[in-house]
Design goal:
The complex is a heterodimer of chains A (237) and B (372).
Chain A: E1 2-13, E2 23-24, H1 32-43, E3 58-65, E4 68-74, E5 88-104, H2 106-117, E6 137-142, H3 145-151, H4 158-163, E7 169-177, E8 186-194, E9 201-215
Parallel strand pairs in A: 2-5
Antiparallel strand pairs in A: 1-5, 1-6, 3-5, 3-7, 4-5, 7-9, 8-9
Chain B: E1 5-17, E2 29-32, E3 35-40, H1 42-56, E4 63-66, H2 69-80, H3 88-98, E5 118-121, H4 122-138, H5 144-152, H6 157-162, E6 178-180, E7 183-185, E8 192-198, H7 201-205, E9 213-231, H8 232-239, H9 242-258, H10 265-268, E10 276-282, H11 306-325, E11 331-336, E12 349-350, H12 353-368
The chains are: A alpha+beta (237), B alpha+beta (372).
């Protein structure tokens, strides 16, 4: 097995798994169906094309920089401005960065990585108005998805790392596909079956939440606190 | 096959303004790089672009997004054959039904309305009207396949660019070939309130003191980084015509550079032109350079030279990204105002906007070719 790593970052992203009607939500981390959709777009698959090859891929994501939820108020009007459509609320994740990992056969991952560097359809982070900042692919690597997510360097922005400079390591949350033997899981309607708008279908996905400690490259220990330093050279007699 | 992707990066300063507000009237914002920024949503700017298209494109290249498509087609039927005027509304209903665009019978004496905003090009409306007229003359029913095809070819430029989703007739969807990012300021902003009083002219004459009304308007001022990208190949797939593709690209560049959402325009008179426009032609993928401004430019209280600093930051970051990933754009053009944005000039060919759009158009034409 190999692992394709992706850095998903930008001013805005949106990963909805259960939006209906006028409230378009986002989850706090990229959804599996969203990332499979991103890979399918890179490959040039149309919504109606079967996802056969991509469905068995295993997926996990690490929350490197959680960002914050932004609620956007959205009105739509006809071009002449006379008719107003229902108001909608779209939620975005602002200022977030994620490390996503996809594992599967090496040949398939290599071709996906190439597709990401020359995508057939434009890429976006969950919603079309959210283009990624910078390149997405961090390359294909050997090993297991769990261990890559548990050890890959911290992907947060420089300012975020510096803000934690007092800490030698940070604890990051991982959300990954459950494997047999995982005791506690939660489920989400996030296993894409078909993106065909005529019968879009998702089945349930079992997700495991766990944590990993990652070194902080910006770690800069504060000098030890020793009030006697100012008395340097003085002695008590 | 040569791949063609056009990235547009714009630095634009707007004075106190409220271009795009949320439901409480505040200018929209977003946090990026850990600090609050001014934000103008992509949807707001796309609407401004679509309205500006009317200046730069022929009506036949454009479309209309409306629920009252029955009215539009009936008018065209009457135009094609005035003798059918009394039956035009009914004919419009039957052709829309044949195309699968209309599910329920319109209410008595009401024009046919679809359940959702339907985005049809003027050419598509015309072809549907022609079908209806032909069926009336031949006294035949309208063939569903022909009607569907009429609604699904000859897409207008704005549909090809921004896409069309029809909830229950999925075979006439069009995937957008243009992505517009939310514009964000390159620096920290806090929204400010303008407290105002309005004087009652009559009471003033009576020398009565006190305001007729009081209120506040919220605003901010910012230097925005705006980014949009056109996937020229996908645009060409949808339009199916190299000449139309070139017209679309040129019109988009002009409209995106020169348009602005109209929010509170009369309150603030905030209509500015971009300080700098950088256009990259790429053959691999789009690259959004917003990362240049993840670290905000300048301190909140230091506005001197903000545009110059933003231009230097963008120029340096562009070179860094290109070096780090071995990404060389196939060509770069720049339009910029004055010395302050001079740092960007080194990235490519400097041209005034009109010549820039023509140069991009000519290069695109050479790449998609007349025959492909």
């Amino acid at each position: 097995m190999s692992v394709l790593l992706l850095r998903l970052a930008g001013p805005l992203q949106a990963w909805g798994t259960r939006s209906r009607f006028a409230h378009r939500h986002t989850d706090v981390a990229p959804s599996k169906s969203g990332v499979i959709g991103l890979l399918a777009a890179a490959r040039g698959l149309r919504r109606t094309d079967p996802l056969t090859e991509l469905l068995p891929l295993r997926f996990g994501v690490r929350i490197d920089q959680p960002g914050e939820i932004l609620r956007d108020f959205h009105v739509a009007r006809t071009l002449d401005g006379r008719t107003s459509m229902p108001l909608t609320y779209r939620h975005y994740l602002a200022d977030a960065a994620f490390l996503a990992a996809v594992s599967g056969p090496p040949a398939l991952l290599d071709s996906l990585q190439q597709a990401l560097s020359r995508p057939y359809f434009p890429l976006f982070l969950g919603r079309r108005s959210c283009p990624p900042a910078g390149p997405v692919s961090l390359g294909v690597h050997d090993g297991m998805l769990r261990e890559r997510l548990a050890t890959w360097p911290w992907q947060a922005a420089g300012w975020k790392q510096r803000r934690q400079r007092g800490h030698p390591a940070v604890r990051l949350e991982i959300l990954r596909d459950a494997e047999s033997g995982d005791p506690l899981t939660e489920t989400a309607p996030d296993q894409a079956v078909s993106f065909d708008p005529r019968h879009r279908r998702h089945s349930w996905r079992s997700v495991v939440r766990e944590h990993t400690d990652i070194p902080n490259p910006a770690h800069h220990p504060a000098p030890g606190h020793d009030p006697m330093d100012v008395l340097e050279g003085w002695t008590c007699s | 096959m040569t791949r063609s992707i056009i990235d547009v990066h714009i630095l634009q300063t707007v004075p106190p303004s409220n271009l795009n507000r949320d439901d409480s009237g505040s200018p929209k914002t977003a946090v990026y790089g850990g600090v609050r920024r001014a934000r103008v949503s992509s949807q707001a700017w796309k609407r401004a672009v679509r309205l500006a298209f009317e200046e730069y494109l022929d009506d036949a290249d454009l479309g209309e997004r409306t629920k009252r498509v029955g009215e539009a087609i009936a008018a065209r039927i009457s135009g094609l054959d005035p003798a059918l005027d009394s039956r035009a509304a009914a004919l419009a209903v039957s052709v829309l039904k044949a195309a699968g665009l209309l599910k329920k019978e319109p209410r008595k004496d009401k024009p046919a309305e679809t359940d959702y905003l339907l985005f049809l090009s003027h050419r598509q409306q015309q072809r549907l009207a022609e079908l209806a007229v032909r069926s009336a003359h031949d006294d035949t029913t309208i063939d569903a396949r022909t009607a569907k095809e009429a609604a699904n070819t000859a897409h207008s430029i704005d549909i090809a660019m921004f896409g069309r989703m029809v909830a229950d007739v999925s075979d006439i969807n069009v995937d957008a070939a243009v992505q517009v990012a939310h514009a964000i300021s390159v620096h920290h902003v806090e929204n400010e309130f303008d407290y105002f009083t309005a004087v009652d002219d009559r009471k003033y004459d009576l020398q009565e003191s006190g305001a007729g009304m009081i209120g506040t308007v919220e605003f901010n001022s910012s230097t925005l980084y705006r980014y949009a990208t056109i996937d020229v190949d996908r645009l060409h797939d949808t339009l199916g015509d190299p000449a139309a593709t070139r017209r679309a690209v040129e019109a988009f560049l002009r409209a995106y550079a020169l348009s602005m959402p109209t929010g509170k325009r009369n309150t603030f008179a905030n209509g500015t032109r971009p300080d700098a426009i950088v256009v990259h032609l790429r053959d691999t993928r789009a690259i959004n350079l917003v990362g240049a401004f993840e670290e905000p430019v300048g301190r909140a209280d230091d506005t001197r030279g903000r545009v110059a600093q933003a231009a230097r930051t963008l120029a340096a970051y562009t070179a860094e990204v290109h070096d780090a990933y071995g990404e060389r754009p196939a060509a770069t053009w720049i339009t910029h105002v004055g010395d302050r944005t001079g740092a960007l000039a080194a990235l490519g060919t400097v041209l005034p906007l009109n010549e820039l759009t023509e140069a991009v158009g000519a290069t695109i034409a050479g790449r998609i070719g007349p025959g492909r």
